[in-house]
Amino acid sequence: FAKRQGRNHLHFFKRAEEHSKRVDIHLRNRFQQAIDEEKLALHYQPIIALQSGEMVGVEALMRWQLEDGSFVPPDTFIPMAEATGQIIPASEWAMEQACVDLKQMLEKREQLCVSVNLSVLQFSRANFFEQIITTIEAHGLANNRIELELTESILMDDSDHAIKLIERFRNAGIATSIDDFGTGFSSLSYLKKLPVNRLKIDRAFIQDIVGKSSDEAIVRGILAMARQLDIEVVAEGIETAEQAIRLTELGCGFGQGYYFAKPKPLAEILKDLE
Ligand code: C2E
Ligand code: MG
Ligand code: MG
Ligand code: MG
């Protein structure tokens, strides 16, 4: 009996696995269709200078809406697109779109910057640097209006290559940020080798910054180290006034989160800039 039950279990798992693969192929095909038909969108979330409360930039976040009006979460389709390689065409589209939209934002406020998220896959492609430069130039934008967000995972692939690339961007006036800082596997010491302009502290450390002394200590430590290395800091996922106040007191320069604004379509950002 036990044996039969075991077999049944195996059978069940196999079925579940096949099912999830089927869903993946389905999702992949639909994502391809969304790329081909330019059905993807970008939403923008304001980045705020904590002292002044002023919006200094926006982060471009990809959105994929299905025919029924529902959105597929980026945490579902971005990893899939990275696995299939579809992130490459999707990212090229996003970079173009961000440039088009930025031109409209700059008409309202000259000093605004757009941050674009990069995938590890892009980083290891030949001519990636040239491609970014060409796109920015084709839209008649200055390099220092575009910022690139990368995660610590780019360092795992080939950190020498990554460091050189970050350096080239920096020399060209394109700032880079380490996104989701603190969630990666790397040690803090690698930061001094990285010519990044800023780091974005992951929301996980911001969530309980008021009340949980260990998280506050971590954030204090990151801020002290960043100051030493002349790196700017953005706190991600600020949801309450208390968190914003605490971070300002601790000397964190910038913040982003639902407390200030959720990611929203370009039209709403333009309205905010009126
Ligand atoms: P991320 O780059 O760390 O972006 C920040 C995420 O936190 C966004 O999720 C944003 O909506 C969310 N967020 C912002 N403020 C708050 C807050 O106060 N509370 C909470 N709970 N969440 C907040 P989103 O848009 O779902 O994107 C998830 C991730 O998907 C991004 O994390 C990024 O890694 C990836 N992603 C999004 N767009 C792109 C893209 O165009 N290219 C690439 N390669 N990755 C992207
Ligand atoms: Mg980001
Ligand atoms: Mg992040
Ligand atoms: Mg993230």
Secondary-structure element series: HEEEHHEHHEHEEHHEHEH
Kindly state the number of beta strands: 9
- Secondary structure category: alpha/beta
**Helical percent range?**
40-55%
Low-confidence stretches: none
Strand content: 15-25%
Rg from C-alpha positions? Answer: 21 Å
User: What is the molecular shape?
Assistant: globular
Strand order across the largest sheet: 1-2-4-5-6-7-8-9
Give the secondary structure arrangement, pairings included.
Layout: H1 2-36, E1 40-49, E2 55-65, E3 71-72, H2 74-84, H3 87-108, E4 113-117, H4 120-123, H5 128-138, E5 146-150, H6 154-171, E6 175-181, E7 198-201, H7 203-206, H8 213-229, E8 232-235, H9 241-249, E9 254-255, H10 266-272
Parallel strand pairs: 2-4, 4-5, 5-6, 6-7, 7-8, 8-9
Antiparallel strand pairs: 1-2, 1-9, 2-3
Helix pairs in contact: 1-2
The protein binds ligand C2E and magnesium ion (3 copies).
